[in-house]
Design brief:
The chain has 490 residues and is mainly α. The chain folds into 2 domains: 205 residues, MFS general substrate transporter like domains (Growth Hormone, Chain: A); 210 residues, MFS general substrate transporter like domains (Growth Hormone, Chain: A, Up-down Bundle), CATH 1.20.1250. The chain is built from 20 helices and 2 strands. A two-stranded antiparallel sheet has the order 1-2.
Length: 490
């Protein structure tokens, strides 16, 4: 192979290499984020925990992810995905080690709460992949990144118990298993920094003009942006309530009250930051080519609320649902419940590909309609069903759920390039808001009503998606020297 041919091969294959490096990074974050779940028997025995204490750990594991995705999105746009992903992987290793070395339940709870920051890793790769793939194939690439990376939770469930029981053994086997995930992440964080670049050679990495919040294009968009932040704080307030004496009782009444006041103060601070970012340019007319419509972000937020939010909620309750409905053993129920997450490998890339091929709004509409129908069918599942039919219904529904996730993030990099990290952070956070919302509903109703509520939310989302505008032509980004670069979005 000649020098020129070798160079051409490197140029054509480099985006695929970046994609593989990045989905593996995301895969490792999900392995660490959900490393505790499959080790439940070992951890509960080590700390003589009650079921209520275990439920508190599950809540703590997702609590920090909502604000973390917003913060990580800002950092990605400011410093680039290469440095931020590497730093996240390396720092996550220390959080895993802290959890593995915990000697009291309070220490365990603290590090599980901090491990919620690991769940923000997903946001980073959205910008990285968006920089390396053109609009005509970005949906498929983002789908591969999201689907294969999400599989890390299933990989943790399949490998860590065996690692704890058969490789390390003993009462502390679970500690070594979790610590091992941290060691792998630390090494890979260094590899990632050495092997990837933020953009292809010769391309510009566009950064926001200011940090602290999204830049919007009109006063109407400013107030819509503020309004879209409210549900995230409500979700965090609900999490505090679940940990208060009215819930699992991990927090005292006074501590819960302090946290609620802190959330109110944080919302006021965020409002001020967003105002500071947008104050100057909203007082003058923004050039048309530099404008974008925030409603695009808001609609994608709600679409991910329904898709990923319902996935997290259903994955949390499905094994118990199978066990109680069909009188199965916990092991068999867990295997059948895993069918929902297994579809990620094909469904999420499939949703991204369909979005590339047939259009963003049309694809998302069809997939959310299928999701609504899927949950309507699941609402009818009962003991009279044959188990193979019930599993088939679950897998068909999960295809539409996860393909819908792929279609959402096929659109995210095409809204405004220099703010892709922040947009992905907000959309991703809404997935966790959806999970908190649906799981809270599930705590008050039976499984059938739970599935019907998700179907109803999907129907409302389907109506909202009709207002999504298909990307056309090019987006405009201002170069550091003041010239304008056109980036293809269709």
């Amino acid at each position: 192979m000649t020098q020129s041919h070798l160079r051409l091969w490197e140029l054509s294959h480099r985006p695929v290499q970046i994609l593989h490096f990045t989905w593996i990074a995301f895969f490792l974050t999900f392995v660490m984020w959900f490393s505790h779940a499959p080790l439940k028997p070992f951890i509960m025995a080590a700390f003589d925990m009650s079921n209520e204490q275990w439920k508190a750990l599950l809540i703590l594991n997702v609590a920090l992810t909502i604000p973390a995705r917003i913060v990580i999105g800002m950092l990605v746009d400011r410093f680039g995905p290469r440095a931020v992903y590497s730093l996240l992987l390396i720092s996550s290793a220390f959080l895993c080690w802290g959890f593995a070395l915990a000697q009291t339940f309070e220490q365990l709870a603290l590090f599980r709460f901090l491990c919620g920051f690991i769940g923000a890793g997903f946001v980073i790769g959205i910008r990285m992949v968006g920089e390396w793939f053109p609009a005509r194939s970005v949906g498929l690439a983002e789908g591969v990144y999201g689907g294969w990376g999400n599989f890390g939770s299933a990989a943790a469930a399949w490998t860590l118990p065996a690692l704890a029981a058969y490789v390390y053994g003993g009462a502390d086997g679970w500690r070594y298993a979790i610590a091992t995930t941290g060691c792998v992440a630390l090494v890979y964080g260094i590899i990632y920094y050495r092997k990837v670049r933020n953009t292809p050679k010769g391309s510009t990495y566009f950064r926001p003009k200011k940090s602290g919040g999204l830049e919007v294009s009109s006063r109407r968009d400013f107030w819509l942006y503020i309004a879209m932040n409210v549900p995230m704080y409500i979700a965090l307030a609900v999490l505090v309530w679940k940990l208060s004496p009215a819930g699992v009782g991990l927090l005292s009444e006074s501590t819960a009250s302090v946290l609620w006041l802190l959330l109110l103060a944080l919302f006021a601070f965020q409002f001020y930051q967003i105002y500071q970012v947008n104050r100057e340019h909203l007082d003058k007319r923004i050039p048309k080519q530099d404008q974008y419509k925030f409603k695009q972000v808001a609609i994608l937020d709600w679409a991910y609320f329904v898709t990923f939010g319902s996935e997290l909620a259903v994955v949390s309750m499905l094994p118990a649902f199978f066990m109680e409905t069909f009188d199965l053993t916990p092991v068999m129920a867990g295997l059948l419940g895993g069918a929902f997450a297994l579809m990620n490998l094909a469904a999420r890339p499939g949703g991204g590909y369909l979005s590339d091929r047939f259009g963003r709004r049309k694809t998302l509409s069809i997939l959310i309609a299928g999701l609504a129908c899927g949950y309507l069918v699941l609402a009818t599942v009962n003991a009279a069903w044959m188990i193979p039919f019930a599993v088939t219904a679950v897998m068909v529904c999960s295809f539409f759920v996860q393909a819908g996730e792929g279609a959402v993030f096929a659109m995210v990099p095409l809204v405004k390039r220099r703010m892709t990290g922040q947009i992905a952070g907000m959309v991703g956070a809404y997935g966790n808001v959806g999970a908190v919302t649906f799981l809270t509903v599930y705590s008050f109703v039976d499984a059938s009503a739970f599935f019907l509520v998700i179907a109803g939310a999907a129907a409302v989302c389907l109506w909202l998606v009709q207002f999504l505008e298909e990307p056309t032509g090019h987006m405009h980004e201002v170069m550091p020297d003041g010239t304008v670069q056109l980036i293809e979005v269709a």
